[in-house]
Amino acid sequence: MAPDQFSTDFLQVAHRPDLGHLTGRWLRSVSEAELHAGYAALRRAALHHGCGHWLIDARRRTNRSLNGPEWVTTQFLPEVQRALSGPLRVCFLVLPDYLASLSTGAGAPAVPGSPVQFARFVDEGAANAWLAAG
Q1: What whole-number distance in Å separates Cα of residue 125 and Cα of residue 128?
Q2: Number of Cβ within a 10 Å radius of residue 87
Q3: Tens-level pLDDT at each residue, the chain (134 residues)
């Protein structure tokens, strides 16, 4: 997977036309400013490639801020979906202990039929299968 022009020193971004999705792999823990810059890079890549299916690998990002996940799911993803003018389906690869700490666990917490769907996984194969099913 070759990174594309939207990658940074802390986030590798790659368009995967073979799988029909955009992949973002966090390479390390990031500051709040880097978190926002990384997601802005993902947004630019999604608009450039016209891609509404994302796999975000957050397993190396171990210092999650308390408001980071909430900002991503309640503000950022709906804004991207509106900009794409189509459905947005995003899966997050996370560490097992982080997934266990969430009250929602795995699955798609968004309202069924919502234009924004997201889920969290510890297994990349299961994440790819969920993306492909959408």
Answers
A1: 5
A2: 14
A3: 455 789 999 999 999 999 889 999 999 999 989 999 999 999 999 999 999 999 999 999 887 665 577 788 888 999 999 999 889 999 999 998 888 877 554 444 555 567 889 899 999 999 999 999 97
In single-letter form, the type of residue at position 43 comes to R
Closest residue by Cα to residue 50 from 21, 79, 70, 26: 21
pTM: 0.86
Is there a domain that residue 21 lies in?
Answer: yes
Expressed as residue numbers, the domain containing 77 is: 11-133
Question: What CA–CA distance (Å, rounded) separates 121 from 41?
Answer: 22
DSSP code at position 130: H
Residue listed under structure tokens 């993902």:
42
User: Look-up: residue for tokens 């039929």?
Assistant: 113
What is the token pair recorded at 4?
A: 């594309």
Q: What is the total count of domains within the chain?
A: 1
Tell me if 86 is assigned to some domain: yes
